[in-house]
Amino acid sequence: KKPDIAENIVQLAEDTDFIVESASADVVGKLLKIAVEKKKNVMIMSVGGVLDNLDLVEKIKKSKDCEIFFPSGAIVGIDGLNAARERKIQSVILTTSKPPQALAGAPYITQHGINLDSIDKPTVIFEGNCLEAVKAFPKNINISAMLSIAGVGVEKTKVRIIADPKLTRNIHKFNAKGEFGEMEVKVENVPSPANPKTSYIAALSAIATLKKMVSSVKLGT
Description:
By secondary structure, the protein is an alpha/beta fold. The chain folds into two domains: 9-69, Rossmann fold (3-Layer(aba) Sandwich), CATH 3.40.50; 78-190, 2-Layer Sandwich (Dihydrodipicolinate Reductase, domain 2). It is built from eight helices and eight strands; from the N terminus they run αβαβαβαβαβααβββα. It has helices spanning 9-14, 28-38, 54-62, 78-84, 107-111, 130-136, 142-150, 200-214; strands spanning 18-21, 41-44, 68-69, 89-98, 123-129, 157-163, 170-178, 181-189. The protein has a five-stranded mixed beta sheet with strand order 5-6-4-7-8. Strands 1-2-3 form a three-stranded parallel beta sheet. Helix 3 (54-62) links the parallel strand 2 (41-44) and strand 3. Helix 2 (28-38) packs parallel to helix 3 (54-62). It is globular and about 50 Å long. The N and C termini lie far apart (37 Å).
């Protein structure tokens, strides 16, 4: 059977019990509003789009009518940050390294006239906080948004993006310090066969989240 195609996002919400967003950060705000209005559970993959709609997230937190799910995406260690947040976290620093062409088309690259083809050694392309990073690279750095929600917030989560022509994989490393101690997490991700701007494990994390929702055994924090 062919899947039904919704003509718009409102019809999508009306005709489904659970919504999985995998479009772009631009639709997240509207989707969250509809989830609240229609009392629908929703999974958000474009976590960066949540940062401009944290008020809606707070509204959903207080609501008993719908739930929002955030898969861990391309990063690992979110369970550790969730546990650490029960006490004070002092800092979270993310370093993401990618092949230059994986950053092609990002607003920051275009605005600054960066020639990705000319990069012949590891080069720091961007340094700033999470909010700045998500606006500069909306399709490349969703993991920083995920880390900020799980950790110390958008302004205190620091982000560095490196373009490395020798890489064939996306590499994400983050360091967190707090009352719990210190953690360092590194993951080397194979790019998605369908979209080299994202990591294969991001799609797999969505599948794992769906399975966890219906499983009677819950693993991890």
